[in-house]
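Before going further, learn to read the protein records used in this course. The integers have meaning only within a learned vocabulary of local backbone shapes. The record below shows the convention in full.
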Amino acid sequence: MSADHKIIVSISSDIAYELAINWLKNGDKLIGTYRNWNKNLDELTKYPNLILIRLDFDRKKDFNKLVKLVNRLGKWSVLVIASGRQEPIGNFEDTVFTDWLDGVKVNFLDQLKIVHLLLPMKSKKTESGPTVLFFAGGGTNNSVKNYSAYTISKIGLIKMCELLSTEISNVKFSIVGPGWVKTKIHQPTILDLGDKSEENYEKTVQMLAGDNCVPIYEVVKSCNWIIEQNFDVVSGRNFSTKFDKFNEELVKELISDPNMYKLRRHKNDWS
């Protein structure tokens, strides 16, 4: 067990909560940020190895408090950014542009701001190197209608992992797509009743009511696997909890193919 802290931004979100429980039960020291208090935080307060701190992306002083806290406690070994929201939902042309910009800010720019602020406090003692882990969304292999701010932000994070991996060789930057998971992030689509989400409303209702969603514990397992791997295996790559087999065979494939699980133009050699 590392003496350094692990950090989860937006620890009150459902996937982050399960990841936190897994680490806290293992005895890891953890810092968790939240914007609004919810029942998940009530449960987390039972663990003495957790420190909670409020972080509102719109409040500069909250960022400053987080930096001071991490500086006081020492270094971090893992930084997980679990914040995100699907709004604004709707056709780009009809969306209020300031709302669209705010969606990109929350899902992309603010997440990179946190990383930039905390990178100087990264640990140098971890066996496989410190890890920064983001969460991806839909839209990498298709076009998700009426969720452009959310989708482009997630795709931007995928590419930023590769860029950061190229520039910073002593930190692992990875992103994992959990797939369809029964979490609160789908509530805006459910409440929309198809007004702006259109066909995605019916798909979301069906997925959440059925048995085809990815269990949260599988997401936790994939995150832990990524964190345990070496730089050349996982850094700069986009993983999928649902579709990837996290085993030694995958490790060999990733080491042998530097383009694997990265954004690339399809059929570039067609001619």
